[in-house]
Amino acid sequence: MKRSKIKDLLNSESTGHQVCVKGWVRTFRNSQFIAINDGSTINTIQAVATLDKFDSALIKRITTGAAIGVTGQLIESLGKGQKVEILAEEIVIYGDCDPEKYPLQPKKHSLEFLREISHLRFRTSTFGAVFRIRNAASFAIHKFFNDRGFVYIHSPIITGSDAEGAGEMFRVTTLDMDNVPKTVDGKVDVKKDFFAKETNLTVSGQLEAELGALALSDVYTFGPTFRAENSNTSRHLAEFWMIEPEVAFSDLTDNMNLAEDMLKYIIGYTLNHCKDDLEFLEQRLLDEEKSKPQNERSEMALLEKLKFCLDNDFVRLTYTEAIQILMNSKPNKKKKFQFVIEEWGADLQSEHERYLVETHFKKPVILTDYPASIKAFYMRMNEDGKTVGAMDILFPGIGEIVGGSVREERLNVLIEKMEAMDIPLEEMSWFLDTRRFGTCPHAGFGLGFERMILFLTGMGNIRDVIPFPRTPGNAGF
Ligand code: 4AD
Ligand code: MG
Predict the structure, then answer these.
(1) What pTM was estimated for this model as a whole?
(2) 404 CB under 6 A from ligand 1?
(3) Which residue minimizes the CA distance to atom 29 of ligand 1?
(4) d(CA 427, CA 279)
(5) Whose C-alpha lies nearest to ligand 1, atom 7?
(6) For residue 89, with 0-12 CB atoms within 10 Å meaning exposed, 13-18 middle and 19 or more buried, which class applies?
(7) Sign of dihedral through CA atoms 89, 91, 92, 94?
(8) Ligand 1 pocket residue status of 37, Cβ below 6 Å
C-alpha cells in the first residue's frame, strides 16, 4: 500500500479508508497507543494496536525511536487532542531501537546535550520545527527573488580574493602539510599548490554577484560562506549561509526598500506556512522563560513579535544620528556599556545595536551612512568625503541581520581607496574591469541566513538553527 504522509492524514476530512504510514515511534503508551512522527509535521498520529491482534514479541519491539510502518483504517479519534487515528491491522518494524541505549528519551533534553548528538536531534520536536522553518524560509527567499525577475547566480566557494578585506579566511590547499614546498626565500611555494596560487574559502559572493549584476541587472546568490574569525558567540558561525542580492542602477533607498520587503516577505511566508511549528516554538519559549525573572522575559511572544515586524515600518536613520542617541543614552553616560562611545567614528558594538533596537526604538532599525574608516573598501564614498553609502539592518534580539551598501562604481575613487587599504590591484583587476567597461551605479546587501532563522524560530543560539554547526574547535559530523 502507498505510504501517506502524516501531515496529509491529519488534515484530511474523510475517514473510514485504509491508510499506511511510516515513521519513527515517539512514544508507546499502555502497550497500545503508538505516537508516530514522520517529519512532515510537528504532530504525531496515533495508531491503536489492540493487544489481541499482535504477537507480544512484535509489541516489545515498538519502542521510542524505532522505525515502523502501520497499515490500518483511518478512523475518527475517540481520545482528545487529535481528530483522527489509525486502527492498526499490520505493523512492520523497519529498524529496532534499543531503549536502553537510545540517547533520546521521551522527555525534555537540554539544547546543549542535543548539540552533542546533532546526528539524532532532527528527531526531536524542536529541531523538526526549526529545520522545517529553515526550509520554508529558504524557499521563500528563492520565490521572492524569482517573482521579481532576479537571476540566481552561483558564486564560487573556492576563491583567490578576499571580498571583505578582513583577512579572516580558511586556506584551501593540497600541499603536504608535513613537507611544504618552499621558495628560495623560505616562503610557501604556492606555484606548486593545486591552483598554482593561494586560495581560500569564500567569505562572501558579493564581488562575483557584482560582475553578474553589471550584465543581468538583478541577481542574487544564496550559498555557504566561511569566516575564520575566532568569535565564540551565539551569533557567529565559521560556516554560515548568506543571501546576497546585487542590483544595477539602484541607490541606497532602493537597497533599503528591497531588504525591508525581502525580510517582511520571509516573515509573512513563514507565518503562513509554518503555523504549527511556530506555535510549538512559541510555547517552548514561554515554558523556558517561566524560570526567568520577569524583567528578563521577552515583551512579546514569538508570533506577536513576527507580526509586529511585518506590520511596522523599519526605522531609518544615519550612523551620525545614532551616535547622538547613543552618546546621550543612560548606559553611555553612566558608563554601563562595555565600550563607552566617546566620539563620532566609533565602531558600533552589539551592545549599542541592541540598545537602539530593543530599548530606544523597539523596532527593527536601518542604519545608514557609516564612517568610511570602519567599512569595507567597496562601499561608495558620499559627497561629504567622510561617510559611505552603507546600510546595516538591526533586529531585536539579533543585532545586525543585514549588511549592505551602494558600491563604489567610479574607477579612480575605487583605486584610490584600494591603494589606501593595501588591497592588491593586479589580483583584483577582473573586479576593476567592471568599472573600466560600462560601469554603473549599483547596490546590494547580504542577509545572514542563520540570523534570520534565529529570529523566526526564537532560538537563542545560532548553533541550533543549522544542522551541523562549525565553530572554533567544533566540526563534528
Ligand atoms: O556584514 P557582512 O560581513 O557583509 C558582507 O559580507 C557583504 N559582502 C554583504 C553584501 O553587501 N553583499 O555579512 C552580511 C551578514 C551580516 O549582516 C550577518 O547577518 C551575517 O552576514 N554574518 C554572519 N552570520 C553568522 N556567522 C558569522 N560569522 C557571520 N558574519 C556575518
Ligand atoms: Mg556587517
Answers:
(1) 0.96
(2) yes
(3) 236
(4) 51
(5) 446
(6) middle
(7) positive
(8) no
